[in-house]
Amino acid sequence: MMVRVSQVLFAIVFLSFWQWASGRIIDPFFVSSPLAVGGRLYEWTLNGQLWSHLSVTMLATAFGFFIGAGIGFALGLLFGKFAFLAEVMDPFITALYSIPKLALAPLFIIWFGIGIESKIAVSASIVFFVVFLNTFAGVRDVSQIYIHSTQIMGASNWAVLRTVVIPSATAWVITGLKVSVPYALVGTVIGEFMSSNRGIGYIIAQATGLFDTNSVFAGIVILMVVGAIINGLLKKTEGWLLRWKE
How far apart are CA 17 and CA 14, in angstroms? Predict the structure, then answer.
């Protein structure tokens, strides 16, 4: 309760200071104000613009997240299980991981067009590496004592993977998923910045060109709230998946 109350108090103090400072210390043109941002969000909610653009961003983020996470998890298990394969592919994975994902966005636009597919590709490429690296580290971190004990009891390779490796690596995987959620949003928004006519990223890019600070902050607030909600859901999922640790 004290933590929640402290969080609410901090938010109230921060917003109050922001509102007071806007126009007194800093020009509102640069920082807007909480009331102005709230008014813009209210306006978007009434005219349906918020849900129209948010649905596009969330759809691309969801597809990118699940595609990237699925492929990253599968390859992380594969490379973690077969050390020789991991050694062979290590320089290539490192080279791909070192490429700034922003540099890949124009290439994805050429390949998939300016529709939602290019945004999904950018988002998935970012999520993939985060989940892959965490899954790989989690699989390699599993104690060999547990694996050998299970094999001695007659478990097959699939049984060892299902009952020992995956549960033990779950904490690493969940960490990767939590970290990759904001990156999935970032990937989608980057794609919308570069070529789009819908989405939260499109709103922010358009508002930037018009020097509309209220709309820019409103778009940022939407992304912050969405990211916080998704992270909260992942925390609940983490508690349920790791209940066996208790």
Answer: 5
**Is there a domain that residue 8 lies in?**
no
Residue ranges of the chain with pLDDT lower than 50? none
| 30 assigned to some structural domain | no
Number of domains in the chain: 1
Helix (H) or strand (E) holding 9: helix 2-21
The residues pairing with 22 across neighbouring beta strands, listed in sequence order, are 26
The CATH number given to whatever domain includes residue 121 is 1.10.3720.10
The mean pLDDT value of the chain amounts to: 83
Concatenating the DSSP letter of every residue in 143-183 gives: -HHHHHHHHHTT--HHHHIIIIIHHHHHHHHHHHHHHHHHH
Residue type for position 201? G
pLDDT of residue 17: 92
Question: The domain containing residue 58 runs over which residues?
Answer: 36-245
Q: What is the dihedral of CA 235, 123, 117, 41, to 10 degrees?
A: 70
